[in-house]
Specification:
It is a single chain. Helix content is about 35%, strand content about 25%. The chain is of the alpha/beta class. It has a single domain (about 1-205), classed as Alpha-Beta Complex (Maf protein). Strands 1, 2, 3, 4, 5, 6 and 7 form a seven-stranded mixed beta sheet that branches. α2 (about 30-40) crosses α3 (about 45-65) and α4 (about 95-105) packs antiparallel against α5. The longest helix is centred in the N-terminal third of the chain and has 23 residues, at about 45-65. It is globular.
Length: about 210
Amino acid sequence: MRLYLASTSPARLATLRAVGIEPVAVPSHVDEDAVAAAAGPQDPDAYVTLLARAKAEAVAERLVDEGGLDGLVLGGDSAFEVGGVVHGKPHLPETARARWHAQRGASGVLHSGHWLIDARGGLLGRAVGGATSAVVHFAADITDGEIDAYIATGEPLEVAGAFTIDSKGAGFIDRIEGDPHTVVGLSVPYLRTLVRSLGVEWTELWNR
């Protein structure tokens, strides 16, 4: 059973590989800002689910047109909520720096959206999805020098909330409440639930 990942996220790819799944990674090329603007104000869970759905649908429709699609298509998206404000990827060093100064010693909620489309036999069938969340607590003793050094690596610029827990950012996090995979951007237990709801056994996806 093939799993098509509508994302080029190294973290999502590594997570799937770690649990025995080698997905077919396909970039979605979705304009996230345009999708969000068209939808209007959304709560964090609805926002990340909306974008995950847009990515999965874009890839599924493109692969159906090209022929050869046979399996499940997964889209994902994440956003970080801290101080009542929802953040996506900072992109710019100055934006990442401002966020780290604000979240140092604080806590926030990482929301990850999932959308799974049944495309077995090359036909777009039923789709299921939703969001999961986990609370992230940051260390209070992070120095300005550590923040600058972390930003200089480039790692925090293209991840929601400007941090990772599976790479250099791990040392700045005190603890996590909830599924750690959610913070990486893909909840493995929730994905298993979605897969089984489409009538596919989780173990059918193990191909590594």
